[in-house]
Amino acid sequence: MSAAPLKILVVDDEPPIRKLLRMGLSTQGYEILDAPNGKTALELLAKKPDLVILDLGLPDIQGHELLRMIRARDDSIPVVVLSSRGDEAGKVQALDLGADDYVTKPFGMDELLARIRAALRHQLQVQGERPIFRTGDLSVDLVRRIVKIGDKDVKLSPKEYDLLRILVQHAGKVLTHRFLLGELWDDLTDAQYLRVYVRQLRQKIEGDAEQPQYILTEAGIGYRLRAPD
């Protein structure tokens, strides 16, 4: 089972554009939420998308106003704006309001994908995370959610990936059982659940799970991921 895909919210009133984006982005492994108007877009924000693609020409809420509303609810989510070719003032206003980037219609899918990756990468850097974390032979691409040992891909369950990501975010620091349990589960306090996932993760990324080199145990306290190279 692979890690849960990144969710992209597509906000555009043109059905052909939404269909094009759904098809193009799905082939890259993204999960797509789509909204034909601003009202639906605001409702879908509750599903916590990882990025928003926003067309400025919507039927119910003016695009820049919707961008303001999105930013008021979540000031960190990346937003890539779709704009018409001649709307230079609209692009500038959108960027001033907090959009991360813009793509002009008509657009190429390769360009849009590159802009999406750049926006996600920038968000990680703002949060103090490395887009690609490396220590020893272990590498974790936090944008594409790809984990490798050397050149070999490592398939993780969503929970295993969430655990590894938290460890990566705090690499070199000791994380207590309580902290990790609180980050991974809403209502679990039994560290045995955590030990099960740590063991499973070690079996996938360590050369010898009994003598780990990456996920180190701090006896009676918690775990620490080896610091990046």
Short description:
The protein has 229 residues and is α/β, with parallel strands linked by helices.
Helix and strand topology:
Elements: E1 7-11, H1 15-26, E2 31-35, H2 38-44, E3 51-55, H3 63-73, E4 79-84, H4 88-96, E5 101-105, H5 109-126, E6 132-135, E7 138-141, E8 146-149, E9 152-154, H6 158-169, E10 174-176, H7 177-184, H8 191-205, E11 215-218, E12 222-225
Parallel strand pairs: 1-2, 1-3, 3-4, 4-5
Antiparallel strand pairs: 6-7, 7-8, 8-9, 10-12, 11-12
Describe the structure.
The protein has 229 residues and is of the alpha/beta class. Helix content is 40%, strand content 23%. The chain is built from eight helices and twelve strands. The strands form three sheets. It has a five-stranded parallel β-sheet, sandwiched between helices. A hairpin with a 3-residue loop joins strand 11 and strand 12 (222-225). Helix 6 (158-169) crosses helix 8. The mean pLDDT is 90.
Q: Estimate what percentage of residues fall within beta strands.
A: 15-25%
Please count the beta strands (DSSP E, at least 2 residues each): 12
Biggest sheet layout: 5 strands, parallel
Strand order of the largest sheet: 2-1-3-4-5
Return the average pLDDT rounded to an integer: 90
Helix content: 40-55%
Radius of gyration, in angstroms, nearest whole number: 20 Å
